[in-house]
């Protein structure tokens, strides 16, 4: 009996709807410029809230990607997901038709789903009664609908799922899609994460658990990962989508290859509903598992796109985890938190950060961590402060950690 040979999987397309750019080129140029995407909330009147700032996707027009009737029946998070998927498919030059549809799947994660629709319909229910609630409320609200609608809009009839693992959801979606292709269950996957949770109730809830920065007098400098003066994360919204393909499938159609995905590590802290385990043991194991899965030794890692939320607990714990996983080499790795520019997209963060990671490999450039002015003594690694950097990136990791103790690390390599 021969040993099972896992298939190689590559990234051939990217899509990005973010607070610093609504297309992958705009997003990448924003990262390289250190562009700030945080401002006062305009989606609703936030004057009564303790936190009044967020990373919004300004001037997003869903009708560039779908008909008006279709857009009206989608929550904003699904609009982002479908738009990002269509961008990624176009970027990959991948056409889905009757010949390949059953071999192309979708996994798009979301931490919150259609909370805006839920809030709006609760108001309708209270003011006008149950009979006036929309028949589209449930299909607009449920978190799996971005994946389902993406399949409907693209014709992808292969494996379809949705990860709902809080802020790790987008990375879990990419890792699970990687496994499906690696083990022969699909030839290509549309995968990533999306979120549109900048809403009154969501903002109030995160503020109530003391997770948000309330630096309302200076929005541009509110998200400051690894900085001594950080005081919470800033919410963001958008979508990040990758097209993963089995290597021979990509080569057969002469697809451009951004990078190869080689490792997926997933663990749980089993410790606390919101706080990471002290010392970062769970996160360190996720990093180590991704390295082992990809046949990577710590000294091979050039770049890490950190979870880097700008909260007191996360940044010091993640620093400890990277040291635990990489040893002394941790001090030689370029690390950045792109949340300093985009804010925290919750379930969508792993998606846009995976896009940033593969573009760093493809372009040999490292995005900066902006607003890093007074490094926390407990955060003493190289966080590429304030200015992007040229660097040959052979191996890069992307970390995502979520409420509930979910830890995910994805490992990418330059395709050879």
TrEMBL record:
Entry's Gene Ontology cellular component terms: cytosol
A GO term, aspect molecular function: 3-oxoacyl-[acyl-carrier-protein] synthase activity
Domain (Ketosynthase family 3 (KS3)): residue spans on this chain: 6-414
Active site per UniProt: 167
Catalytic reactions of this protein: a fatty acyl-[ACP] + malonyl-[ACP] + H(+) = a 3-oxoacyl-[ACP] + holo-[ACP] + CO2; (9Z)-hexadecenoyl-[ACP] + malonyl-[ACP] + H(+) = 3-oxo-(11Z)-octadecenoyl-[ACP] + holo-[ACP] + CO2
Annotated pathway: Lipid metabolism; fatty acid biosynthesis
This enzyme's EC code(s): 2.3.1.179
Enzyme class: transferase
Gene Ontology biological process terms from the UniProt entry: fatty acid biosynthetic process
InterPro entries linked: 3-oxoacyl-ACP_synth-2, Beta-ketoacyl_synthase, Ketoacyl_synth_C, Ketoacyl_synth_N, PKS_Beta-ketoAc_synthase_dom, Thiolase-like
Keywords: Acyltransferase, Fatty acid biosynthesis, Fatty acid metabolism, Lipid biosynthesis, Lipid metabolism, Transferase
Superkingdom in the source lineage: Bacteria
Keyword tRNA processing: no
PANTHER family per the UniProt record, alphabetical: 3-OXOACYL-[ACYL-CARRIER-PROTEIN] SYNTHASE, MITOCHONDRIAL, POLYKETIDE SYNTHASE-RELATED
Record function comment: Involved in the type II fatty acid elongation cycle. Catalyzes the elongation of a wide range of acyl-ACP by the addition of two carbons from malonyl-ACP to an acyl acceptor. Can efficiently catalyze the conversion of palmitoleoyl-ACP (cis-hexadec-9-enoyl-ACP) to cis-vaccenoyl-ACP (cis-octadec-11-enoyl-ACP), an essential step in the thermal regulation of fatty acid composition.
NCBIfam families referenced in this protein's UniProt entry, alphabetically: fabF (TIGR03150), PRK06333.1 (NF004970), PRK07314.1 (NF005589)
Family: Belongs to the thiolase-like superfamily. Beta-ketoacyl-ACP synthases family.
Protein name: 3-oxoacyl-[acyl-carrier-protein] synthase 2
Annotated organism of origin: Hassallia byssoidea VB512170
High-level lineage: Bacteria, Bacillati, Cyanobacteriota, Cyanophyceae, Nostocales
């Amino acid at each position: 009996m021969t040993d099972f040979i896992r298939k190689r999987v590559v990234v051939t397309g990217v899509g990005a709807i973010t607070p610093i750019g609504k297309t992958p080129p705009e997003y990448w140029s924003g990262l390289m410029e250190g562009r700030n995407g945080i401002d006062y909330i305009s989606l609703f009147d936030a004057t009564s809230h303790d936190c009044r700032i967020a990373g919004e996707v300004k001037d997003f027009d869903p009708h560039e990607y779908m008909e008006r009737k279709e857009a009206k029946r989608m929550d904003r998070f699904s609009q982002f997901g479908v738009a990002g998927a269509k961008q990624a498919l176009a970027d990959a030059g991948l056409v889905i038709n009757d010949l390949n549809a059953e071999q192309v799947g979708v996994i798009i994660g979301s931490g919150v789903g259609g909370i805006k629709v839920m809030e709006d319909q609760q108001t309708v229910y209270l003011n006008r009664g149950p009979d006036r609630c929309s028949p589209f409320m449930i299909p607009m609200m449920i978190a799996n609908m971005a994946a389902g609608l993406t399949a409907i809009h693209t014709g992808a009839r292969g494996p379809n799922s949705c990860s709902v693992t809080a802020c790790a959801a987008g990375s879990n979606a990419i890792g699970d899609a990687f496994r499906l292709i690696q083990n022969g269950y699909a030839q290509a996957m549309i995968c990533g994460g999306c979120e549109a949770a900048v809403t009154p109730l969501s903002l109030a809830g995160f503020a109530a658990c003391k997770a948000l920065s309330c630096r309302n007098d200076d929005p541009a400098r509110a998200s400051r990962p690894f900085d001594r003066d950080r005081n919470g994360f800033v919410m963001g919204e958008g979508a990040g989508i990758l097209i993963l393909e089995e290597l021979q499938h990509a080569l057969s159609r002469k697809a451009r290859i951004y990078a190869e995905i080689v490792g997926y590590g997933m663990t749980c802290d089993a410790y606390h509903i919101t706080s990471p385990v002290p010392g970062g043991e769970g996160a360190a194991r996720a990093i180590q598992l991704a390295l082992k899965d990809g046949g990577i030794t710590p000294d091979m890692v050039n770049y890490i796109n950190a979870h880097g939320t700008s909260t007191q607990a996360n940044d010091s714990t993640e620093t400890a985890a990277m040291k635990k996983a990489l040893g002394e080499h941790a001090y030689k790795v370029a690390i950045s938190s792109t949340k300093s520019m985009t804010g925290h997209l919750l379930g969508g963060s792993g998606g846009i950060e995976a896009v940033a990671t593969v573009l760093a490999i493809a372009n040999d450039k490292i995005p900066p961590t902006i607003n890093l002015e007074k490094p926390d003594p407990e955060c003493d690694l190289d966080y590429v402060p304030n200015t992007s950097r040229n660097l040959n990136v052979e191996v890069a990791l992307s970390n995502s950690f979520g409420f509930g103790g979910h830890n995910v690390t994805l490992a990418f390599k330059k395709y050879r």
